[in-house]
Structures are given as C-alpha cells and as structure tokens.
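This part of the workshop introduces the protein records we will be handling. To make this concrete, we reproduce a full record directly below:
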Amino acid sequence: MTNVHGVSVPDSKLCRTITEFIRDTETELLFNHSSRVYFFGAIAGQQRGLTFNPELLYAATMFHDIGLMPSHSSQNLRFEVDGANTAREFLESHNVDPSDVEKVWTGIALHTTPGVPEFMHPVIALTTAGVEMDVLGLTYGQYDDATREAVVAAFPRPPAFKEDISQAFYDGIKHKPQTTFGNVKADVIADKELHFHRGNFCAVIRGSHWRG
C-alpha cells in the first residue's frame, strides 16, 4: 500500500469499492491523476494543519473527473456537476451520512472554481488543492522532490501528461460547449478594458514546473 508522509488510501470497504469503481470506469490517465490528487490534497492538509475525513477526501478526489467519461456525462450539465451527482448517488447507495455526501458533492462541483474552495470545509478545499497541484503545479514548491517522486512512482504521470489531460478535458466537454460559460468578472473587464488579457488554463498547464 502506498504511503507518503503518513498518507495512504484508507483501508476501508468504502474506499476499496471506490477504487474498484473508478478503475473500471475511468481511463488509466484519469485514475492515476485522481489518485495523485488525493495524495497531494491530503499532504496539503497536513501542511495546513487541517483535520479531515480521509475517506471523504478520497471519494471527492477519485470522482472529481468522472463527469468527463461518456458513461457519466449529461447533455446539459457542467462536467463537474455530472461528477458530483455520480459521487452523490454512489455514496448514498453506501449509506454515507447526507451531510458528508454534500461535502463531497461540493468539493467536486467547485474543483475548477479557484478562489472559493480554500475558504470552505477541508474536504472541499483539499480536493481543489490536489487538482491545482497535479494539473497546474501552482503549489509545486510546497512539496519536496522526494514527496513528488514518491507519488508519481506509485501513480505514474506520463511524459505527455499536460497534453493528455487537456485532450481528456476537451473530449469530455466538446459535445456541450454551452456549459463552459466563462467567469463573469473576466467577461466584464474584457468588455471594458481594451488591453485586458484573461488568464488561460491551458497556458498555465504548459507553463507549470511539471515536466510533460
């Protein structure tokens, strides 16, 4: 069992079932990405001195991208909401407390909304923290080389990960572009300021400290 800085996947029936479900449903790319997100998120929790239920964090991180899979993608909802709804249905079927289900739902639904989750419940905040580390490398320097290497050794990050994950996002949402409606604040500034240059998700991925 992988253990990094004292962090491991909880050895519980719920987590074993989650692992099996995600392995059977997602691509290897997304399964390994989601696993890394759990470890980076949980380690971030240690660094921040946060108390959280690792089972719930595991559920949120492992389900966070399942809405990109055709089998769990709707025609009119954001992929984040599709993933959150899938996690809710799964956890409810395993009799998880409704208040805990909502924490997981919210963590998944907000994981692409920077600037908000960090002020919320640790499960919500750390789901986004893990995503921002593995995809964007925003907190790359807060993890030492040994930690990053241990997580990647357990859940490989392919050489072309940046391009692969961008393609996975595109493939998962291209059939419903209306769900990608942008940040209202950026739209307003762009409308009023001629020289405003909005941030670009793909550019941040390409420019991150991660190789590949």
Observations:
- The chain has a mean pLDDT of 94.
